[in-house]
Every structure is written in C-alpha cells, then in structure tokens.
Specification:
Blueprint (H helix, E strand, L loop, with lengths): L1 H24 L12 E3 L5 E3 L7 E7 L4 H17 L4 E7 L4 H10 L6 E3 L2 H6 L8 E5 L5 E6 L4 H12 L3
Length: about 170
C-alpha cells in the first residue's frame, strides 16, 4: 500500500512538473517584447529593463521564503560572474512584502546582480506571478524567449542562457 501511495505521489509530481513546463511553453508573453519597468534596486540604483538591450537578461521573480528560489541563487551568482562579460545580466525581482529580509539574504548570499522589489503591478505586467520562482529569459533585442516556472532544471536553464548568448 505504501509503495502504491509513493508511486502515486511521484506520478503527481511528474505530472505537475510537465504541466508547469507546458504552461510555460504556451505563455502569451513568449516571443513578445518584455514588459518594461524602472525600479530602484536594494542599493538605491536605478534599474531600467530597457537599458539592458544588447544583453541577455535572466529576469527572476522570487521570494526569501521560497525554497527553490534559495537553491537557484548561488547558481545565479556564479552565472553572473561567469557569463556577465559575455553579455548576461541577471535581475532579481523579490516578491517579498518587506525589503529587510531581502537585504539580509542577498548580503548573506553575496548576490552580485541587481535585486528590485516587486509588487502586484509588476507581477501583472508579466501575466500575474502565481507561484515562485518564475524566470524569464530575454534575448538581446528585448524579446522574451523562454519562461521557467517553479523548480527548474538548472542545467536546462544554463543551456538556454548559453544558446541565447550565442544568438540562437
């Protein structure tokens, strides 16, 4: 009986992941210009998404309480260091209500990319952010080329970044 329950749980997880990937593949924002926004980051520096034209942008909606988001952060820090000179710019959008835990976590994790505070208005621009993380890959022309929702294979995400940096 426990094996059956375990098998059903694994099947539910697999179907859920497949559904999330399928939903991401049919997102109405795909292959459209990324909605523009201007916000100040945690260091009070202006972050204008449009100013990153010419760079590949990994735009990640996340929160301090989100376990998969916390797993991604060290990899994002490494990718910003590794691919930044090739044209990658990571931008984090914290969906936390208060910036204090965000500041504490990003200092602890030594985040090397800008983090802005998000809200319902910014989430709505991106089709409504329900569940975290939600990550958009934006090409050098400002077009959304991929969306990753929920816990994502970081190797698949890195492969998508490498292809975008090569212009494919």
């Amino acid at each position: 009986m426990f094996r059956c329950i375990g098998a059903m749980a694994l099947l539910a997880i697999a179907l859920s992941a497949a559904t999330l990937q399928a939903a991401a593949a049919t997102d109405p924002l795909l292959h459209k210009p990324a909605p523009s926004f201007v916000r100040n980051d945690l260091n009070h520096q202006r972050v204008d998404l449009a100013a990153y034209r010419g760079r590949v942008v990994l735009l990640s909606f996340w929160a301090t309480w989100c376990a998969p988001c916390q797993i991604e952060m060290p990899r994002f820090v490494a990718w910003q260091s590794r691919y930044g000179s090739d044209g990658l710019q990571i931008v984090g959008v914290s969906m936390d209500d208060d910036d204090a835990p965000v500041i504490a976590l990003t200092r602890k994790r030594k985040v090397n990319y800008p983090i802005v505070m998000g809200d319902e208005e910014l989430g709505t621009l991106y089709g409504g952010i329900l569940g975290l993380p939600v990550t958009y890959l934006i090409d050098r022309n400002g077009t959304i080329i991929a969306k990753f929702k929920g816990e994502t294979s970081l190797s698949d995400l890195e492969t998508a970044i490498q292809k975008a940096l090569r212009g494919r």
